[in-house]
Amino acid sequence: MKRKIYAILLTACLLIVIYFSIAQVYPFNWSVVVRYRVVFLNGLITTMSLSGFSLLLSFSIGIIFALMRRSIGILREFASLYVFFFRNTPLLVVILLTYYGLGSVFPFDRFWAAVFGLSAFEGAYLAEIIRSGLDAVDKGELEAAFALGLTRSEVFIYVHFPQAIRISLPALIGQSISLVKDSSLASVIALAELTMTGRQVGTQTLASFESYLTIAVFYVAITSVLSFLGHWLERRLAIP
Q: Are 65 and 122 contacting, i.e. CB atoms less than 8 angstroms apart?
């Protein structure tokens, strides 16, 4: 505990020294952040909404394609192609393809284009994480469940899947944090999320440093909460 406190204090001191060193050559104007606080808050709400919907949808996609990857025949091949495509395509390109490609065929706005693109991209990574978790479950536990008379579906619901999620939880939390940070790329289609609003405020007021520092603090706050929840879940679900 003392080491953590010392590390926090050391980091705080370094940040203070860096801040005042920059302040010698750059005139900080934090009143801009106060003046545009509503704009920043609206961008924060949009980012949190985008991340929330994308997390739910990408987890659903991840579970479905993880199961397809462990099946046989055409389903397995289709899932493999899906994972291969999205893991080898930049997220920026995926979002642009979703908005300017699918968006020209199906009537959805920028927000849902960003949700669909982000979910499809992150879903490929989550599918591999969940699949590896399913493969890592001890076969002896499954055989014991079958020996107790459970059906295949009951074994999956009550034994196999919960164990896989427990095993995959650290990687799932890490990917969720990456999703929140990756949501900043939605600014490329002019979605008024946190990064886009920070860029607009910086351009209008010429206070780019203050704007980007503000959105950085917001992102750190969101990801820190996710990280804390992840550690709490890991302790909660840890095998005694």
A: no
Would you tell me how many other CB atoms lie within 10 Å of the CB of residue 121? 26
Virtual torsion, Cα 52, 55, 61, 62, nearest 10 deg:
-170
SS3 15: helix
Query: Is 35-237 assigned to CATH 1.10.3720.10?
Result: yes
Q: What is the pLDDT of residues 191-213, one digit of tens each?
A: 989 999 999 998 888 888 889 99
Domain ranges of the chain: 35-237
pTM of the predicted model as reported, rounded to 2 decimal places: 0.88
Determine the straight-line distance between the first and last CA of the chain, rounded to whole angstroms: 23
Counted residue by residue, the chain has a size of: 240
Query: Which residue, 228, 209, 219, 211, is CA-closest to 185?
Result: 219
